[in-house]
Amino acid sequence: MNMICRKKAMLDRGWSWVVLCSSFVVMALSYGVILSLTVYLEDLKEEFDVGSREAGMITGVSLLFATFISPVASYVCNRFGFRATITSSGLIITVSMILSSFTTTYTQIFCSSALTGFGVSFAYTTCSVIMGFYFRRYYVLANGIVFAGVSTGMFALPILFEYLNSQYTWRQCYRIIAAMCLNISVAGALIAPHPSIDTDQNNPKKGEITQGPDGDNHTINSIEYTAANTNEDKETISLEEQNNELPEVDIHHQKIHEESTDPDVEVQTPENTKTNYIRRLLSYAAHFLNAFCRVFELRLFLKLDFIILFTTMYVLSVGYMGTIIHFVARFEWVGFTPAKSSFLLSLMGIGGIVSRLTHGFLVDRHYITAINLYFLNLILAAAFVFSLTFVSSYLWSQILSFFIGMWMGLFPPLAPVIIKDLVGIKRFNSAFGLTIVSYGLADFTGSLSVGWIYDLTEDYNKSFYLTSACLLCGGLLMLVLIIMNKKKVNRSLKLVNGVSIPLKNEDSE
Question: Do residues 69 and 356 touch, judged by C-beta distance below 8 A?
Fold first, then answer.
């Protein structure tokens, strides 16, 4: 039986910083690895005799699974805890990388890359939410440091992978990378079992043995979904209790009443029985769908501001991932050596590290709001990616790569902050999970569309026109969201004796 830690851990100090360092390493060796595997894009094209579109889909499918199945990763995390989820992710990534090194067809490496994304999803989803359990005052800063692990991986790993590629074949490199990814499990072991901070400790979790009013021990077997981990009101849905309310249907033993003592009762015929069965089946399906929508908060899509946010995340992610996946290949197309091209990707990682480590001070000290900073970075990223298509000098390419990394590096860490401010603490977890799904769709379609344009035109500049346009559209949508948010705030102000007092907002409770 697993030991449950009952002592409430201190926020913003102590072991929280060890968990922060562990999450940093996990991010670098999981998400940073699949982004840095673009170094082997040309080798994969030659090995499997495919174009840029198909080669980009190898990384794209990893990114798709890394984000698209985040609800599954969230369930595993809630069921088994942070440590078990991260440890298992390291094992899954290691196995998938080894399988990729033995593939002989494009279909095989495509499937093994999907398995890699499955493992990365466990690590990425867990590290994206874990800081909320250990930090409060320095949450934005801590979240930025964790996501800086991705940028650190983008900085260090392409150089290392390029060196390995010069010494070994890409298959041997994949096996070395698989050994490196085992350190994810080591880092996950440092995350001790931790009770939910700022939650009601009297609420037992699944698998806990509690003492009932009769003095006997009872095991809690229901699976609970908590919409917010705060001292405020919580909305908990017990899936098992909902299932217990459903009547059982026994198809094979359903009897037809051919006789009735009441002459007014219609005799059940096989046709009527079949109709009643279909009605019951539809009723159960509707009940399940209703429960599914409530668990995952799909009613968020009834809110216009969330629809705009979801669309914004999808559009900007197409430009974001399309740029990163084909970044090295684009500079090799310009004429730079593979080593120089990989170094430019590393400069992007350095820029991301700088911005992710510093933006927390700006937001925490209220110099600028998170949503305004997000909008500013979208516009600047679009301008710099577009400027990259007019540059052929390696010096200017280095400068632009660094600043592109700075602007684009803030997209992942600022997204949770904006979502939380938009939908409130009660719906934050569900809204974040739904937004991650948009990332997965964009990651796949972004790499696919950029490679498809290059295959048609044999010009990477035209592909980067698309990515810069997507970033610009994302910025314009974010501007619309800012205007809507300001109008909403103005409508919620009530003037009392010349003083503006904000009205109570139930979503932010």
Answer: no
Q: Strand pairing of 236-238 and 224-226?
A: antiparallel
Backbone phi, then psi, for 15, in 5-degree steps? -70, -15
Residue the block writes with tokens 């405020």: 232
Distance CA 185, CA 87 (A): 4
CA angle at residue 317 from 140 to 507, to 5 degrees?
50
> 459: number of CA atoms within 13 Å, CB side?
7
At 296 the pLDDT is 66
- Residue 310 Cα distances to 327, 423, 440, 441, 494, angstroms: 25, 12, 12, 11, 30
Rg (CA), the chain: 26
Q: Which residues pair with 494 in a beta bridge?
A: 501
284: Cβ–Cβ under 8 A, 6 or more apart, which residues? Answer: 246, 249
- Tell me the C-alpha distance between 66 and 42, whole Å: 23
pLDDT for residue 333 is more than 70: yes
Give the separation between CA 373 and CA 377, rounded to whole angstroms.
6
Of 320, 446, 447, residue with least CA distance to 384: 320
φ, ψ of residue 499 to 5 degrees: the values are -115, 130
* Rounded distance between C-alpha atoms, residue 109 and residue 96, angstroms: 9
Which residue pairs from 243-247 have beta carbons closer than 8 angstroms and sit at least 24 positions apart in sequence? 246/284, 246/287
Instruction: Output the CA–CA distances (angstroms, integers) from residue 79 to 72, 88, 230, 498, in the order listed.
Output: 11, 13, 19, 51
**Per-residue pLDDT at 376:** 94
SS (H, E, C) 228-242: CCCCCCCCEEEHHHH
Which residue, chain included where needed, has tokens 């198809």?
Answer: 251
Strand pairing of 209-211 and 217-219? antiparallel
Residue 468 has pLDDT above 90, yes or no: yes
pLDDT in tens, 241-284: 444 444 444 444 444 444 444 444 455 566 667 677 788 788 88
Length of the chain: 509
In the DSSP assignment, the letter for residue 327 is H
Q: Which residue has the tokens 């400068």?
A: 399
CB atoms within 10 A of CB 390: 9
Of 285, 271, 277, 321, the closest CA to residue 439 belongs to 321
Residue 369's closest CA among 327, 414, 411?
414
